[in-house]
Amino acid sequence: MFKDKLAAPQVSAEEMKEHRDRFSALIAEYPWLIPATVSLEIIPVTVMIHGFWKNRQLKKQLLIEKEHTKQRQLGGGCHHGHGGHCHHHPDGKPQLLAGPHHGHHRD
């Protein structure tokens, strides 16, 4: 049932020539149709390229932020913008969010 709708209709050589002649006459009468049609095709392509570029940029920014978060959790120092000793953390390092790792037992 769907195969009949998806199959290209059989066009005779005479119908093809008639179609080509009408198309040529249309372009001869309205030559501005070609650049207008091309410019309309460029718009979606431009939007797709911009979206792809923006997506890559945001993924890279997300990876950087994840790395910053990991460094802060591992005690990479205070990142509040204070120079020298940080008054937010008594020992100068932020506290880890998770408890001690398994395998580090104190007796």
Characterise the protein shown here.
With 107 residues, this protein is mostly helical. 59% of the residues lie in helices and 0% in strands. The protein is built from three helices and no strands. The mean pLDDT is 79.
Overall geometry: elongated
Radius of gyration: 33 Å
Q: Name the poorly predicted regions.
A: none
Helix percent reads 55-70%
Order of helices and strands: HHH
What structural class do helix, strand and pairing data support? mainly alpha
Number of helices: 3
* Largest sheet report: none
Topology:
Blueprint lengths: L1 H5 L6 H17 L3 H41 L34
Keywords:
59% helix, 107 residues, mainly alpha
Task: Summarize the model shown.
The chain is 59% helix and 0% strand.
